[in-house]
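Annex B. Sample input.
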Amino acid sequence: MSLAACDPTPPEKKISADYQAPVTAVAPPTNLRSVCYNDTDLSAFRVRMVQQQLVVAALQCKGANGKIYLDDEYAAFIKKFSPELSSNANELKSLVKRKKANLDVMVTEIANRTAQRPVHDHEFCSRYQRAFDWALFAEVTSLTQVPAPYDLGPEMKVFPCPKG
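Annex B, continued. Sample output.
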């Protein structure tokens, strides 16, 4: 019998950004060049998408006793990324102005689409626990390093501009 088999120490918890759900394929519009998002705009959108999805999960994921159990993680997330979230708010305001969009509608759509996911995704809360673990990992220093658990961009007709 090997010593490893007798070791009562549990394996280290692996923290990684492998929690993202498969992306729903949506064909880009034929007029893509006129409606696409450049890298800066996509980054602003994606940072807000992450924040909005995490707040929805923090409110929806509850234990058997009905207690919300991602509250502490969300508070730590806000504390860690507060300066970046503030600058993102300004970037997003600029983005929606240029795109002639409505910020409240965009944020509400992200929240509503996220809130519908638990019906079809039995890993919803564990996916968000892993997302919080990743976001709060010391090596993660920017929200641009945190993938949204669900990339809602294609569903919301947010497509990157073609390169070249």
